[in-house]
Amino acid sequence: MSKPGKKRGKRQILAGHKRIGKRFVPPMMQIPMRVDTSYANDMLPELIWIGLINERVGYVRGAKIIEKVFLAVDALKEKAQEGNYALMSSFNKLTNDQKTAITETLRKEGVLDIIQNSIAPLVLLYDDCPLTFLGPPTNTYSQEDLTSIIKLCVGKTIDRYDTPGIVLYGAMLLARLVTKTIKFPADMDLPDFNSVIDSPGSEEAKRAAGFMRANGLAEFGMMKVGNAWAKHFWDKSFELSPCEFA
Amino acid sequence: MNSNSYERFDEMLSDFVQGYKDVVVRGFDDRWGKVRQEIYDKHTSETIGALMSRQATLSIEMAAAPTTWNGHVAPLFLRCMVDAYITLAWILADPKERSRKYIEYGLEQEKLFIEFLEEALEEEPDAYDSESIKEMIEVRKGWLNGQLADWATEVNVGSWSGMSAREMAKEIGRESIYKHAYVPFSGAAHNMWQHVGIYNVEPCSNPLHKWHVVPKIRRAPAHPDFMYRSAKYISITYELFDEKMGIDCDIPLPDQYFVEHDLFSGDGADEADNG
User: What is the three-class DSSP state of A24?
Assistant: First the structure.
């Protein structure tokens, strides 16, 4: 309650906005060189394969599996093929020989079956999936099963503030860390990234999630990933099952 | 609702509509009968009276059509009524000059429309409706020239008052009505996304469809609050008129009639519910 006799300051409409002609630009939109990035539109289709792996084996085992993928790519890729291989479209840069070699490496590492079965909806339902080279699943799935799996996964990961979505952002950071293409100063106060999984909702987890989102958005914006796969993903997803109304 | 309560509700609604029309019309006639008509500068009385009549008519028509008391249609009435209030209040601050401007602008718009009709007739003289267009031009020219010769009528394609509705509302000390009524109802009147994105779509909950919304012809529930607002706007219009003209009127204001009617007072509503 305000003190008697003390007038409350009048709230200013659109405080902090900058007037440019007839438009009022909010503070965050005044930042120069800003790039619009939509998580749901463009990033989620690129990261959904990791969501499918996590959904099948859990976050911890999922992280170990995608680490093996990142390292397998890193061992073969050349300078012109730089990129963040958490993003599916990055795999389009590889040659067929490299793709075959990566598949073989993952088979030897004992994770190919799990990956194939996890990403089966993407490989079998989407014509232009950049991970098709990894091969079809070893298990048998009906189209209804596959649609149900991808629907569940998208439903869980589409919220970038919820753990499944945050972990996808984290995968972009993980790709950089395991391939040693990102470094932090020794005295930098890094958050505990595991807190996102170990204690979701905690202050530490919120800080870690914010760090991961900021890193992911910044990198995605700078990489200028084409939207061909994202567009195909959403167009095809729309065809898979009818609208649902409450 | 059983058949008894339905009949009771129907009776109360019918009574409300009839009584509402009566209180609005009597309020208008009583007020208009108490002011001296300006005949030398007749445009002053003509403008003020016509705008008052417009406001009263809109409210009566809305009351007579309870199916319009919903989010699809009611804002169209209400936006128009708020606009009429702001216009009237702004004119009443300088009636002689502003009512002249108001009428002139209307005549200018009429002249422009006649030009459009004549252009259409020239382009397609044998069109199936050319005869009716010719008749329309004659009637409209007669109305225009009866007030100001068309050759003497300028055409202003800007705002009639030279101000925006917000500036007018601010000048009359009613910026709040602009912010809280004119702005939200304008969304519906101009079919903007903030209206159609709620009233004309339904959200799909299939995650594979990225939470899109799909067009839907939806029923919007009727709500008496829309009608109450209409009653409020005609009431503040009458109050404004009383203040500016220095008159008193004993006839209850329409918003008072509304809140006291059985249909909307707690007792009457309960009675209809319980049959």
Answer: strand
Contact A243 B204 (CB under 8 A): yes
Q: How high is the ipTM of this complex?
A: 0.88
Instruction: Write b or e for each residue in B48-64: b if 16 or more Cβ atoms lie within 10 A of its Cβ, otherwise e.
Output: bbbbbebbbebbbebbe
- What is the pTM (predicted TM-score) of this model? 0.84
- Tell if the CB–CB gap between B205 and A244 is shorter than 8 Å: yes
Question: What pLDDT shows up at residue B149?
Answer: 81
Residue range B238-246: average pLDDT?
97
pLDDT above 70 coverage of chain B, percent: 96
Residue B208 to residue A41, Cβ atoms within 8 A: no
Q: Which of residues 101-160 of A touch B (CB under 8 A)?
A: 147, 150-151, 154-155, 158
pLDDT given at position B269: 57
Q: What is the pLDDT of residue A26?
A: 86
pLDDT band at A16 (very low <50, low <70, confident <90, very high): confident
Q: At what angle do helices B95-123 and B130-145 cross, to 10 degrees?
A: 160
Nearest to A246 among B205, B208, B209 (CB): B205
Mean pLDDT on A171-197: 94
Residues of chain B contacting A, Cβ within 8 Å: 202-211, 214
- Distance CA(A224)–CA(A230), nearest Å, equals 13
Query: pLDDT tens for residues A82-98?
Result: 999 999 999 999 999 99
For residue B15 the two structure tokens come to 């009574």
Which residues of chain B neighbour A237 with C-beta distances below 8 Å?
208-210
List A109's β-bridge partners, or say none.
none
Supply the DSSP string of chain B, one letter for each residue: --HHHHHHHHHHHHHHHHHHHHHHHHHHHHHHHHSPPPSTTHHHHHHHHHHHHHHHHHHHHHHT-GGG-STTTHHHHHHHHHHHHHHHHHHHTSHHHHHHHHHHHHHHHHHHHHHHHHHHHHH-TT-TTHHHHHHHHHHHHHHHHTTS-GGG-----S-TTSS-HHHHHHHTT-HHHIIIIIHHHHHHHTT-HHHHHHHSEEE---GGGTT-EEE--------HHHHHHHHHHHHHHHHHHHHHHT----SPPHHHHHHHSTTTSHHHHHHHHH-
Helix (H) or strand (E) holding A213: helix A203-223
pLDDT at A1: 40
Pick from A161, A98, A154: which is nearest to A122 by CA? A154
Q: Taking CA atoms, what residue in A is nearest to B215? A: A243
Question: Of B102, B103, B112, which Cα lies nearest the Cα of B161?
Answer: B102
Work out how many CB contacts closer than 8 A connect A with B.
36
DSSP one-letter code for A93: G
Type of residue at B134: K
Residue of B nearest to A42 (CA): B210
Partners of A25 in the β-ladder: A18
Q: At residue B246, what is the residue type?
A: G
